[in-house]
Amino acid sequence: MRAAWQGRGWWCRLLWPVAWCFGLLGAVRRWAYRQGWMHCDRLPVPVIVVGNVVVGGCGKTPLVLAIVEHLQAQGRVVGVVSRGYGRRGDDFVRVTADADPAEVGDEPLLIHRRTGAAVVVGARRVHAARMLLHAVPEIDILVCDDGLQHLALCRDVEIAVFDDGGVGNGWLLPAGPLREPWPRAVDLVVHTGMRPAFAGFRAVRSLADEAVDAQGRTRSLSLLAQDEAVQVVVAIAQPQRFLDMLQARGIRPATVWRLPDHDDLRGVVQRLDPAAPVVCTEKDAVKLWTLRPNAWAVRLLQAPEPAFWAALDAYLYTLRNDKNGEIHGEIRTRQP
Questions:
Q1: What is the pLDDT of residues 251-300, one digit of tens each?
Q2: Which residues contact 226 (CB under 8 A, 6 or more apart)?
Q3: E strand or H helix that includes residue 316
Q4: By three-state DSSP, how is residue 260 classified?
Q5: Backbone phi, then psi, for 103, in 5-degree steps?
Q6: Looking at the structure, do residues 321 and 260 belong to the same domain, yes or no?
Q7: Closest CA to 153 of 41, 315, 240
Q8: How confident is residue 89, by pLDDT bands cut at 50, 70 and 90?
Q9: Are residues 275 and 320 in the same domain?
Q10: Which residue numbers belong to the known binding site?
Q11: Domain that holds residue 314
């Protein structure tokens, strides 16, 4: 589908009237927020929204992880809200380290386990955020994993993430990959690919040098590369990227199991060779470890260029100093 959306073939043209209607509805909704007919809730702490305007994986969650760790290194108490895409049910749930990924979603569980940050999932981000702030009043900044189009939540910094696909054919869903028209006003743009389609900051992807299993044992990728029986299980939006990165580190798997993004992996476990090592992404490990605890998870690292961190810190510094030194100012609070 993503490949087809790079052009404007006949079936994209056939769907263009539907895309026009989709765009009209979105424009009316945004206008209603600007007019105040629909309410945008402002929280008592700054809010950073990280998301994409195109469908599919663009490296958003690895960037969220990097931002949370960056803020924590500065002494901030960070909270994270997320929809928890692919989970069962739509209740508001606080994520714990032993939570069922089917209940909270694999990405929120990964964020909590990796960073230790408090995370709440829920379709309505405002309610999730208020629940989180009530549970952990020490939180002084919130990061919203996805949610550029969730206009009910006022935000102070918007970060749009793109990969090499850019905006595809430039058309809205379903004729193209866009959730909303682009360009649109955002504070920061981050490109996670090697060939940015337009201006923005670069973020370099890489793999950690070691894989880890559910017991915390580690094994170097160079050692895994010597095993010719390695099996790879991958259930992410862009599986080929992970496979290419493994191959660049010398790992050439005997078997590759590609599953849909957010798959629960239960169907593949019975088909794995119990005697051969299994390699997966850190995201897939939160599900696979409950079924195969000796699977080796490889962490995907996202390293934005220094200029991105300088720009983000500048925005946050402005927020800290607005309103005579109060933590959360109104000047930078973005309305839809």
A1: 999 999 999 999 999 999 999 999 999 999 999 999 999 999 999 999 99
A2: none
A3: helix 306-325
A4: coil
A5: -95, -30
A6: no
A7: 41
A8: confident
A9: no
A10: 54-61
A11: 4-199+305-325
